[in-house]
Amino acid sequence: MLVNGRQVYADIYGYTPWSTLPIELSDIRQIEVVSGPSGALFGFNAVGGVINIVTYDPLYDDVNTASVTAGTQNLIQGTAIATFRFGDKGGMRISIGGRKNDDFTTPLDPIEMGVRQGNDRRAGDVAGHFRLAPQVESEFELSHSEAAEPSMTPYYTQLYTECARLAEAGLLHEEREQTGRRRRVYEITEQGLQALVTKPETGHIPTHYHEGGYVKKVPVDPWGNPYVYLSPGTHGDYDIISYGADGEPGGEGNNADIDSWELQ
Question: Global pTM?
């Protein structure tokens, strides 16, 4: 992946950080695609081909534009591009852009709580191209970008899947009665999540408990606090609750409670 012939592929991460590229859509003059092995010219990342984004040249192209976009998830985005020409001797192009929007409403996986918090991008670019002599030209470019988004951790799975995994693995047992029918039995509150690790010895004792348990240790929430398990629950057969970062009921942000019944 190239911009004006310069590689923008992040080798250390193995992907192209699109939002950090200091160019706006209105900056792009054309996109060149070379299909086929090109490693000899462009390196190991060009085995399947090369994509080169070409921006407008301030020496030859006079581009002046501005745009504002708004949308769902509180999206607000703006770009502005101005070109300053100095006759046929040279030119400068200045472009700025920014975008901010909220995250999707899909609940997070517990391990990603506090990571995926929407998108925020700001970028600026100054490019100059001057003709010093009939066959001598000079170019320069200064750019800066800041981007805060979940590019490296795009988890959009539901928190409920973790709660359900706990419940269905060891807290819920399907047992056959003599009639051949199955009955669904959840561990009671007193047995709690410890029933995932060791076979209960009081209350309901499952007859088909998995040897060695279902997990090696009692699971905790992403902040290291124990889950609250209630069975029977007030909102269903069972309730699983995380009290958030502070480990106390209520709160806002990372301290807010996460309830299994609200994420189904």
Answer: 0.53
